[in-house]
Specification:
Order of helices and strands: EEEEHHEHEEEEEEEEEEE
CATH class: Alpha Beta
Shape: globular
Number of helices: 3
Number of domains: 1
Strand content: 25-35%
Distance between the termini: 35 Å
Structural class: alpha/beta
Radius of gyration: 17 Å
Largest sheet: 9 strands, mixed
CATH topology: Purple Acid Phosphatase, chain A, domain 2
Number of strands: 16
């Protein structure tokens, strides 16, 4: 049984917004994620900040679940797969790629993807800086002066929702504005950057098991 999702149309194509902070393209059998930031827990532990030793497995387990559930033929990662310097989390990710050897993984490099190119020498992993299609262009950061819809990450978008008694809650979200569609951060240690809701934007707030569409301000 497939999990809940919100179906939308982007440039005439159907996309499914998943509450697990991932897109699925039924027409291409493609899963899209951004900003996993594997290794961030280890990076903080090296700085003396306490994190549970197995906290990195939470994001890998979620990715494993999505691969088993949606059975994509390819996975597109929009940058910041890994959080800076090498540590053992890379071995866990490499093991996942080997387990799903029938799936093609594409990494659009982000500013944190600074590992030596030799680490990416895996048969079902392709690395590029930008991926362009007929009506879409995929990148890590926002590109400027585009005639195509730019799907990107980097920002870790969030939305703040206010209640009647002036209480508020911040949630991760998908953010659609003009010629850009901003992906939520997949990683659970990434934090949020709250974006304003303008008249010409559409925000899809992510709850635990569902998506809520918010129009404009």
């Amino acid at each position: 049984m497939k999990p809940s999702f919100e179906e939308i149309q982007l440039v005439g194509e159907t996309f499914l917004l998943l509450p697990q902070r991932a897109l699925f393209r039924p027409g291409k059998e493609q899963l899209i994620v951004s900003d996993i930031h594997l290794g961030k827990a280890s990076h903080f532990r090296k700085q003396g900040i306490a994190f549970p030793p197995q906290s990195h497995l939470k994001d890998l387990d979620k990715l494993h679940y999505l691969l088993n559930t949606w059975k994509p033929s390819s996975v597109l990662i929009l940058g910041d797969l890994f959080h800076s310097s090498y540590n053992k989390e890379w071995l866990w990710f490499k093991s996942l790629l080997m387990h799903f050897s029938q799936i093609n993984f594409i990494l659009v490099e982000g500013n944190h993807d600074i590992l030596d190119k030799t680490f990416y020498a895996i048969s079902n992993l392709l690395v590029t800086d930008v991926l362009e299609e007929e009506h879409l262009i995929f990148s890590h950061k926002q590109l400027n002066e585009l005639t195509k819809l730019n799907i990107h990450g980097h920002i870790h978008p969030g939305v703040e929702i206010f209640g009647m008694a002036r209480q508020s809650i911040r949630l991760p979200c998908y953010y659609l504005a003009r010629r850009q569609f901003i992906m939520p951060a997949f990683g659970h240690l990434t934090g949020l950057h709250v974006l304003k809701r303008e008249d010409d934007t559409v925000v899809y707030a992510i709850l635990e098991n569902s998506i809520v569409k918010l129009n404009g301000r």
